[in-house]
Amino acid sequence: MSSVAGPALRPRRPRGRVVGWAFLAYLVLSLAVGFATLGALLFDVFRRGLPFLDRALLFEVPSVDPDIAGARPAILGTIYLMGIVFALAVPLGVGAALYLEEYADRERWWNRLLEVNIQNLAAVPSIIYGILGLAFIVRGPVGLGFVLLSGGLILTLLVLPVVIIAAREAVRAVPSSIREGGLALGATQWQVIWRSVLPAALPGMATGTILALSRAIGETAPLLLIGGLTYVAFNPTLLGPFTALPIQIFNWTAQPQEQFRLLAAAAIILLLALLLSMNALAIWLRNRYQKRW
Amino acid sequence: MSEMEAAVAEKKTALDVAPRTADVPRDVVFDVRDLTVRYGGNPALAGVSLEIHEHAVTAFIGPSGCGKSTFIRCFNRMNDLIPGAGVEGSVLYRGQDLYGRDVDPVTVRQLIGMVFQKPNPFPKSIYDNVAFGPRVLGWKRGLDERVERALRQAALWDEVKDRLKESALSLSGGQQQRLCIARALAVEPEVILMDEPASALDPISTARIEDLMAELKRDYTIVIVTHNMQQAARVADMTAFFSVDVSSGGRTGVLVEYDRTEAIFTKPRDRRTEDYVTGRFG
Known about the structure:
The complex is a heterodimer of chains A (293) and B (282). By secondary structure, chain A is an all-alpha fold. Helix content of chain A is 70%, strand content 0%. In chain A, helix 3 runs antiparallel to helix 8 and helix 8 (189-216) packs antiparallel against helix 11 (258-289). A 6-stranded mixed β-sheet of chain B has the order 6-7-8-3-9-10. In chain B, strands 2-1-4-5 form a 4-stranded antiparallel β-sheet. In chain B, helix 5 (143-153) crosses helix 7 (173-185). Classes of the chains: A mainly alpha (293), B alpha/beta (282).
């Protein structure tokens, strides 16, 4: 067999290679700025905080003596807050998402208004939620006072739009052929949602919710405003005064003694660890239950 | 009461919802009268009248956009789910108007099952896919037997009996489609609508689905949409040829000719049918 002569294959052009390399270098630089900043911060925090990351930090109450001060009330406060947010934001968020995706008629102006407003709410600064909470939940009509439950309710309001948006994405990702398949078997709309759509959307919803929670875990501003007391030397209760990790960190860094700032660094490591493990859980859930249609 | 008797009793209650009327010949399952379907303004399908017979395979053929899929979805009211869809005229199911004021579309869909173009098993186990329908209808007794019976009817039992707990998504495309057929059979419908059931399958799987249709028509009435003329010629007893009418400015599907399959393919009365079945158009 003989091959027929075709067009000659040209060698690589050196100029194209230079441009390619320059572009790649720019991309790496962009990445490096972000990473270097984060790396420097992390390095500093770990260098200063690690020696203080001990049993006392986990199990002791705050004290004027940095050697025996701990963050137990703040850690418990944060855990309780997350519990409240999870318990309230998930059913409300999933319910709202299912209404908007499965029932709402897009043609109606009120449904479009709802949609736009939920998008907007997700972008409202958290301090606004704090002011709202102060006026309506702490004082005003609800009047719960400066207590843990108030904090939980405000953080719930804060993350609810994010949870709704994430849950809607998850519901929308369920192909319509699954709904048709169910309906064609004589299932009602509710049965199709409950037995087919919801189970299929659950992993996505869980992932979105956890990411929303990890936003709530670092919130300081709204809690400060509604009396997330900075000195709590006892375990928090639902209807009692409280503090949370970010507030404790904020408080310690404001102290004149260097020791307290090191303690704050240790608390930051703790908060980071909580945050990372929540994100890891989200990723694990996503990979574990990811559906292939 | 044995499982079989229970199943018969359940079927009877289901059928009571749509009682037979004396003046309709026994073998007419659907009597379509002057049906027009619109999605918004222009009709997608206009002025269709035909009768569909019991224990037969009826095929709808025609070029793309001729409204054959729209038409088949009128028989189990799946068009209700599309916003803006409107139906004029009537579809009588054993003498009763499917679009009657007090008819519950959910009941209609149980009696008149559907298999879709692309296999759409639920992301659940093989068993749970077949059990889905009986479960939503509250048929709890004899579920295992019911699932087995449906899988046997769909000629899938021997391939899956040892892995009923495995995900339905692990099956091949052809197996998934037979699973969807089994899933539809498990709620004991009287009619099975198939919207291009083999168009996403390889030739061997297609042949199995076609064999299955020949089997199933003893117990069920089958209506199938296909764009594959050979398939219609192979499986259908009756064939309806649809075409697109552009005279109104839009694209409207119309029924050109409806007859025994043999007649459609060998002695078509309409020129358009002849052109289509001989491959000169479409």
